[in-house]
Structures are given as structure tokens and as C-alpha cells.
Design brief:
elongated, Bovine Mitochondrial F1-ATPase, ATP Synthase Beta Chain, Chain D, domain3, alpha/beta, eight-stranded mixed β-sheet, Elongation Factor Tu (Ef-tu), domain 3, Rossmann fold, seven-stranded antiparallel β-sheet
Length: about 475
């Protein structure tokens, strides 16, 4: 019977407590656990058997007694209260306001676990998002409704890059009008200075009033990290599908989320899989990533930028490996480029956007976008090969053509990839910059570009090259 309290616990194992199985208890049901001093802490049902129920406590087990503690099953899943006053608010990882302005005034509460999007109702992402960053707009284009993670490492400027994207991102259509995003920012297990950096950046750029923040910092209970992204995505779904807004969700750091998942799995005694992570890591990550997209009946959208730090810069680690399978590409940050002072240090070859082909071209960006991107990618790939050869035989032994590619590679990194964290380039500037770099290569090597575009953009004067959508 729902709402009935049960006294006593069978045993306590860290943040998981075991109690006798009660009737009609559901998986993920919210539970209130009271200690002997009537202190109340929330938890959720994580496992059940014929005799016992396992409850995961969101917080410390200090003060809990197997004899004196009481358990109340609340008969519902964890919910987030949403309403028009959601924007500009700061919540903890459990969706509780921590900014001192009280609860959201609304009677609408949504299950944080969300619902799978009906594939029939899901619309294919096609709208180009201009981030103002050439390495992304030109070669790894972000599309509205896409999930495009940033694969980074400790000490790399992924937070600065994400903040720049949040400041500059906008949808550009053929009529050259732009539509801004509202932002849902979720921090999981990050240090206070990282969260402070994002909040200060939002405030200075004037977007703080259009952002919803969920903070589960490093000193918060680690298990709170499992709920924080679900609360954030629930808020995003409300803003996108109920309020018809374009929502950009930034989640950092997914590695901390996965570590918390491994901790819970170990406590529950589950058989570990790769590197100790549970075998359901793939499906658990998919339950978060697949909540991005567009659906019919709503003009809103959810675009995700999850940030994850690869342990030891290993892109084959289970977290980036599985994230790459689920998401539609990745922005990989390169440590060597960072050490050479190039920002943003977006690796040219490992980075990709699988939806790029459907969001560029005539009427969306510019007719020459696909050809320029493909040729730059091919040329930079040859640069890498020539550099490897030069490291073996020496640069002086290279042919004249190979030395031209070495020069092109240096120009590409210093002029195209590198830009200031306040520099906002529109897509026309990015493509024109790409053409100026291609002039350094032999004309006969431009095999990936339509000859019509060579005559129009490469041979034409600067005044003839459009610097806008057409």
C-alpha cells in the first residue's frame, strides 16, 4: 500500500540500504528514509527481489540505524517542477532550487526519467547552427537537434570552447534571420571554479537570464550525479516541446557521471564489464543522449553538447568509445595543438559531424561549403602524412610539392583553426578563409572541388565572392 511507512532496515551498504520487500513497489520509485532524529533524505528503488528492496540514498548514510530508521515509499518516480519561471534559476542535482528564490510556482511536475521519443514523431535534424568557430562551422558543422560531444582531456580548454559556443550559437536560415538558443547547463562532479567560470561567462555575455543551471559539484554526494542530467534534460524537454524554444544542453563532465554509475554498480555487486564499468553503460548513456532532437508538433528543439574528459587521452576508453557510437560525431581536442598555443585545439582528422551533409549547401550555408570542407580535409590529411615522412628523412629531402603542403598545414592551423575566444566568424568568413588557404596548393590537386566553384570563388576577386548565405 502506497504511503505506508516501514520501520527498520535489513542492512546498510554505503549509499545503498536494504529493506524488506513491500508490495506494489516500482523500480525507480522515490523513497523517503528517516533516521532516529527524524532527519529526512531521499532515495530511489534500484533493485528488487521476492524478499528485499534495495534503495539508493542521495546523500550520506551518517545517522542511519538498521533498527530505528523508517522507510516511506512515496508511490511515484522522481519529478521536477517546471513552469514559465524556470529560466534564470539555479538548482542542485536533485532539481531543488539553491539560488534563494524559492520553488518554481507551478503545478506541473514531470518525471525526470523522461519518455522515449516515438521514432515516427522524430524529425530529421537539418538546420545549420552557426557557432562562429571555423573549425566547427567549416568542417564539423553542428545541426539543430544534433548531439555532438566534445572529447577532451585534463587541462585542455574544453570549458572555454563550450562557453564560446553557448555565447555565439545561433540558427541561420536562408533569409539571414537568426534564432537564439536558451541554455540548460548541467555540471556533474566538477570543481566549484569550473561551475563559477560558466556562471560568470553567462552573466558577462548577457545570457544568464536565458539559462537553467543544475549543479552537482565535486563535494555533493556522488550518486546525485546520476540524477542531475535527467533533471536537466527534463527541463530542456519542457522548454523545447511545451514552450517551443530552441534549447542547447551542455553537460559536463560525462566521465564523472560514468564513474558514479560504476560506483553504484560495484555496490550492488553487479558483474563488471570493460574497465569495471557495468555492462549496461551503453544503454544508460543512450537514455540521456537520445533525449535530444526535434519532434513533430513542436517548433522547439534540443541540441546536446556533452563534454567528457578521456582518461589518459585514450579515445578507445569505454566512455568516449560508447559515446561515439550513440552520438552523431565528436569534436576531439588535441593536446599537441594546445601546447603550440592554438585555440581552439580542434583535431582536424578525428573530429567529425555525421549530420553535416544534411545541414549545409545551397539555401542553408553556401553552395561551395561541402566542396571546400572536403578539400581542406583531404589536404590536411596529406599534411599529416608529409610530416610523418619528414620526421624520418628530414624536411630538406622532401619534394617541392610536399614542402608546399607543409606550408599549407602551418597556415591552416594558424589561420583557420586558431582564433580568439571572443572572435565570432560567420560562415561566409570561414569559407572565404578556406579559399584563401587553398590558393597555396597546386590547382591540379583540387580534385574535390567543382570546377564551377573554382572559377567563381578561387579566380574571382574578393569583391565577387559572397560573404553571406546564398
Amino acid at each position: 500500500m502506497k504511503g505506508v511507512e516501514y520501520r527498520g532496515l535489513t542492512r546498510i551498504e554505503g549509499p545503498v540500504v536494504i529493506t524488506g520487500r513491500s508490495r506494489n513497489v516500482g523500480f525507480n520509485e522515490v523513497v523517503a528514509v528517516y533516521d532516529r532524529d527524524e532527519g529526512r533524505r531521499l532515495g530511489r528503488v534500484v533493485d528488487m527481489s521476492d524478499e528485499f528492496t534495495a534503495i539508493q540514498i542521495f546523500g550520506s548514510n551518517t545517522g542511519l540505524s538498521a533498527v530505528d530508521s523508517r522507510v516511506e515509499f512515496l508511490g511515484k518516480s522522481m519529478e521536477l517542477r517546471v513552469g514559465p519561471g524556470l529560466l534564470g534559476r539555479i538548482f542542485n542535482g536533485l532539481g531543488e532550487p539553491i539560488d534563494g528564490y524559492g520553488d518554481i510556482i507551478s503545478s506541473t511536475c514531470l518525471d525526470v526519467n523522461g519518455l522515449p521519443i516515438n521514432p515516427y514523431a522524430r524529425l530529421y535534424p537539418r538546420d545549420f547552427i552557426q557557432t562562429g568557430i571555423s573549425a566547427i562551422d567549416g568542417m564539423n558543422t553542428l545541426i539543430r537537434g544534433q548531439k555532438l560531444p566534445i572529447f577532451s582531456g585534463n587541462g585542455l580548454p574544453h570549458n572555454k570552447l563550450a562557453a564560446q559556443i553557448v555565447r555565439q550559437a545561433k540558427i541561420i536560415n536562408a533569409s539571414e534571420s537568426s534564432e537564439p538558443f536558451v541554455v540548460v547547463f548541467c555540471a556533474m562532479g566538477v570543481k566549484y571554479d569550473v561551475a563559477r567560470f560558466f556562471l560568470d561567462d553567462f552573466e558577462k555575455s548577457g545570457v544568464l537570464a536565458n539559462v537553467v543551471v543544475f549543479l552537482s559539484l565535486a563535494d555533493a554526494p556522488s550518486l546525485e550525479r546520476l540524477v542531475a542530467p535527467r533533471c536537466a534534460l527534463t527541463a530542456a524537454e519542457y522548454l523545447a516541446y511545451e514552450r517551443n524554444m530552441h534549447v542547447l544542453v551542455v553537460m559536463t563532465d560525462m566521465t564523472n557521471y560514468c564513474e558514479a554509475l560504476r560506483e553504484v554498480s560495484s555496490i550492488r555487486g553487479e558483474v563488471p564489464s570493460r574497465k569495471g564499468y557495468p555492462g549496461y553503460l551503453y544503454s544508460d548513456l543512450a537514455s540521456l543522449y537520445e533525449r535530444a532532437g526535434k519532434i513533430s508538433g513542436s517548433t522547439g528543439s534540443i541540441t546536446q553538447i556533452p563534454i567528457l574528459t578521456m582518461p589518459n587521452d585514450d579515445i578507445s576508453h569505454p566512455i568516449p568509445d560508447l559515446s561515439g557510437y550513440i552520438t552523431e560525431g565528436q569534436i576531439v581536442l588535441d593536446r599537441e595543438l594546445t601546447q603550440r598555443g592554438i585555440y581552439p585545439p580542434v583535431a582536424g582528422l578525428p573530429s567529425l559531424s555525421r549530420l553535416m551533409k544534411d545541414g549545409i549547401g545551397q539555401g542553408m550555408t553556401r553552395e561551395d561549403h561541402k566542396d571546400v570542407s572536403s578539400q581542406l580535409f583531404a589536404a590536411y590529411s596529406r599534411v599529416k602524412s608529409v610530416r610523418n615522412l619528414a620526421s624520418i628523412i628530414g624536411e630538406e629531402e622532401l619534394s617541392e610539392g610536399d614542402r608546399r603542403y607543409l606550408s599549407f598545414g602551418e597556415s591552416f592551423e594558424q589561420r583557420f583553426l586558431s582564433q580568439g575566444d571572443t572572435e565570432n566568424r560567420d560562415i561566409g568568413q570561414t569559407l572565404d578563409l578556406g579559399w584563401s588557404l587553398l590558393r597555396e596548393l597546386p590547382r591540379e590537386d583540387l580534385l574535390r572541388i567543382n570546377p564551377v566553384f573554382i572559377g567563381k570563388y578561387l579566380d574571382g576577386g574578393a569583391e565577387e565572392r559572397p560573404n553571406r548565405l546564398q
